[in-house]
Amino acid sequence: MSENMTKPSEATTRAWTSIMRARERLLGAIEAELKAAGMPPLAWYDVLWELARADDGRLRPYEIEERTLLAQYNLSRLIDRLEGEGLVRREVFAEDGRGRWVVITEAGRQLRERMWTVYAKSIEANIGCRLTESEANSISALLARFL
Amino acid sequence: MSENMTKPSEATTRAWTSIMRARERLLGAIEAELKAAGMPPLAWYDVLWELARADDGRLRPYEIEERTLLAQYNLSRLIDRLEGEGLVRREVFAEDGRGRWVVITEAGRQLRERMWTVYAKSIEANIGCRLTESEANSISALLARFL
DNA sequence: TCACAATCCATGCAAATGCATCTAATATCG
DNA sequence: CGATATTAGATGCATTTGCATGGATTGTGA
């Protein structure tokens, strides 16, 4: 707990507010485009994507949690909604009676793909077209410090 | 509306997820430290800070909205809460009967300062100490493309 | 000037979130 | 083994958000 008491530099503070604001703006734009296309929120995509690329299309809730950074209680209820829409289903996890599998359904895979057609265009229109490849790489390399 | 149909590159997509995740992690850490110190959420800070540095310590709601990127209806109710705590007060805006002033109080200024002592430490501990000055500058320069 | 549109902010209601806690099952340790 | 702690996930409740719309005022164009 021995913290460094040094105050952040101007540059550090600007970096922080840039991260906050860029995310704000970009997420706002992208979510708006998804919504305009009649698609559900981005968090649905994140979960469906993690499931779709997992072995057998299934993960434990805590695994989804780690991969998406969703809070446990939020994920639990997001899965409720996804299940209600028939996009995933919960199955028993035999090796541990406390655990569950969350399995993506065919409808879930299809929705994810349809979301991706919109999402991809959005990412390109809001982000890709404003960065060179090397700039994009710089961003992910620099921000990797925080992951 | 003629959109570029090109799909985003790998690098672009990674840049986007880096932004989302870095913000997630950093905000989580910083909000947790504020809360641990008994402080209100970061959004309160943002509003108080914009007011504190504005002329006469006051702004119109729509000005706060622009500066903080808060949604209009969220800001309206955030101001309710701030007002309830005596941190700001609303005053009439004589030139336009639709408008309002939001004025920071002395208690508001003091709270902002106390929050800053915690917030600054958090920014340094989570961000500053992981970046050189030039890296921090690179981040803000690159992300400025989106602002 | 008068009808109509636009702007500023507030608010009712439904949905999502945060927090604390609960249940059920498993792990640990005497 | 038995008591206790820990883990996985769900949930009740209060707060916050999102969406649509409302009320009040100002701008605009015939």
Beta-sheet strand percentage of chain A? Answer: 5-15%
Rg of chain A over CA atoms, rounded to whole Å, is 18 Å
Enumerate the spans of chain A where pLDDT stays under 50 for 5 or more consecutive residues. none
SSE-based structural type of chain A: mainly alpha
Sequence of secondary-structure elements of chain A: HHEHHEEHH
Number of helices of chain A: 6
Mean pLDDT of chain A: 95
Number of DSSP strand runs of chain A:
3
How would you explain this protein's 3D organization?
- By secondary structure, the first copy, chain A, is mainly α.
- Chain A has six helices and three strands; from the N terminus they run ααβααββαα.
- A three-stranded antiparallel sheet of chain A has the order 1-3-2.
- The longest helix of chain A is centred in the N-terminal third of the chain and has 27 residues, at 10-36.
- Chain A starts with 9 loop residues before the first helix and ends with a helix.
- At the A-B interface, α1, α5 and α6 of A face α1, α5 and α6 of B.
- Chain A binds a DNA duplex (30 and 30 nucleotides) through residues 60-62, 71-78, 80-81, 93, 96-100.
